[in-house]
Amino acid sequence: MITEAPSADELRHHMTDHLVRAGCIQSMPWRRAFLNIPRHEFVPDFTVRAQGSLHRYSQGDPAWLAAAYSDVSLLTQFNQDGTATSSSTQPSLMARMLEALDVRDGDTVLEVGAGTGYNAALLCHRLGPTNVVTVDVDPELVAAARSRLRSAGYEPTLVAGDGMAGYPERAPYDRLLATCGVGRIPAPWREQLRPGGVIVANIGCGIARLVVHNDHSAGGRFLHGLATFMTARPTPDAMGATAGQLVQPLLTWSGETREITLPAVLDAPGAQFLASLLHPRVNDFAVMDDEGRQIRCLFDPASSSWARITMTEAGVMTARLDHGGPRDLWAEREPLLTQWRDAGRPGHERYGLTVDPEGVHTLWLDEPDGVTWRLPG
Predict the structure, then answer these.
(1) Model confidence band, residue 314 (pLDDT cutoffs 50, 70, 90)
(2) Domain 8-222, what fold?
(3) Domain layout of the chain by residue ranges
(4) Model's pTM, two decimal places?
(5) Which fold has domain 243-342?
(6) Per-residue confidence band for 230, with pLDDT thresholds at 50, 70 and 90
(7) Peptide bond into 172 cis (omega under 30)
């Protein structure tokens, strides 16, 4: 028996119902936005990463429409090295971040990272195009997003430029949503929001919701769930070294060696969360050696400092550390992981972040005046 494939409308309703049941969509305005904005029209071609493989879909492929409405990130642009440089965010994460903005009718929103334009369309449906400004560093992405948004009936302000600088021409804003990863909250973001304004942004592998105060300081907690967006780029071709390019050098470099005891399993979500906040610009990945031992590799491109942590026995928290360069990356990271272990390995949702008027970022556990950790700039 031949069964007719579901239509785009049916798939969109199914996706939205799933997001509501999962608690990602909690309000009727956002439910209406997801029901009305056709995601597939913003992603005519994309790639999905599944089970370690990449699967490419193009408009007209039998599985393209269903894949466009699946709850996964869709990779939509790659550079010459094959590294993904733009995507359509996983809808469940997108919905949680939009809900966290807590927008009200008439609010103005600055979106950093236009991407495909789909998220901007959702904002336009909720607030109206005149209240939405979206910035992306890549002029080609901006042009494509503008065309797709216009086809959907929306014409927000789209700008090709450095999103880290915000867009002062339309400031002040009520809300700022960053769909790219940042290591620290840029000062222009805080300065371009009204007092009481909200920033929702990916910092490290956490999603922070910060409220801006009169003195342009900001503070708030991390949302449930971990996520890593593509890192914001100051220019279209400013990409750091990939893990694949670093594996061979990091496995062969020689430097100072010492034995260490690990305070935590480095792959634990909590440990990864804290490491990403402390060292947002450090490449951090694991490989296996010929003997089946895990080797954790760290590399700081700014100082060319590196560390190689080799587990010495399976199931035992002892390791050999080899490192080089002006920074001892493990000596910087170990105290924060030890503090986390001694606090009972709290979940990342118990942490919050304060950014003072000068831009100093302070991580805290449970309350801003509790256990704190000043993050390096």
Answers:
(1) low
(2) Rossmann fold (3.40.50)
(3) 8-222, 243-342
(4) 0.91
(5) Double Stranded RNA Binding Domain (3.30.160)
(6) low
(7) yes
